């Protein structure tokens, strides 16, 4: 992807969240710079499970890894079980990045990867990405949370 004057190449590994794949996680994250931990906003249990996945990443990589907590499936607003505030609070508590997305609708996917790329080592001297690609999860519209960026579809992975 292109960030201002730089090209950033992201290699994604989707490890799936099922417990049966848990033993494979250390080999995936051993040399990773970023871990994206995704939960379903319509499933409280997947949100609760993120704590153990973040612990797994940190036990393998310590603090030498960028962690992003992602609430996915925002297109299922009527089934939501985890609020934006809960996601933000958990991210603050665990000192990780936070964003909500909808892979199905392509909502905030590009913004997620731009945010991750900008946080990579060596990118700190770069100015923030363009305003139209940034996300403000604190904006409200008619009682619902409105995220600014409508972007292309994609998946998230460690």
TrEMBL record:
It is a lipid-anchor. CDD domains: Rab6 (cd01861). It comes from the Eukaryota. InterPro entries: P-loop_NTPase (IPR027417), Rab (IPR050227), Small_GTP-bd (IPR005225), Small_GTPase (IPR001806). SUPFAM superfamilies: P-loop containing nucleoside triphosphate hydrolases (SSF52540). Keywords: GTP-binding, Nucleotide-binding. It is found in: Endomembrane system. One of its GO terms (cellular component) is endomembrane system. One of its GO terms (molecular function) is GTPase activity. The keyword Nucleotide-binding applies. The keyword Nucleotide-binding applies. Pfam families: Ras. PANTHER family: RAS-RELATED PROTEIN RAB (PTHR47977). Belongs to the small GTPase superfamily. Rab family. This is Ras-related protein RABH1b.
């Amino acid at each position: 992807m292109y960030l201002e004057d730089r090209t950033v190449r992201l290699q994604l590994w989707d490890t799936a969240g099922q417990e049966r794949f848990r033993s494979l996680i250390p080999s995936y994250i051993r040399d990773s710079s970023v871990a994206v931990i995704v939960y379903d906003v319509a499933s409280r249990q997947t949100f609760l499970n993120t704590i153990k996945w973040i612990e797994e990443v940190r036990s393998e990589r310590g603090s030498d890894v960028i962690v992003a907590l992602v609430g996915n499936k925002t297109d299922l607003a009527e089934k939501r079980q985890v609020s934006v505030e809960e996601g933000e609070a958990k991210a603050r508590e665990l000192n990780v990045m936070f964003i909500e997305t909808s892979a199905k609708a392509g909502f905030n996917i590009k913004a997620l990867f731009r945010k991750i790329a900008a946080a990579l080592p060596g990118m700190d001297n770069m100015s923030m990405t363009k305003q139209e690609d940034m996300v403000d999860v604190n904006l409200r519209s008619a009682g619902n949370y409105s995220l600014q960026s409508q972007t292309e579809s994609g998946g998230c992975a460690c």
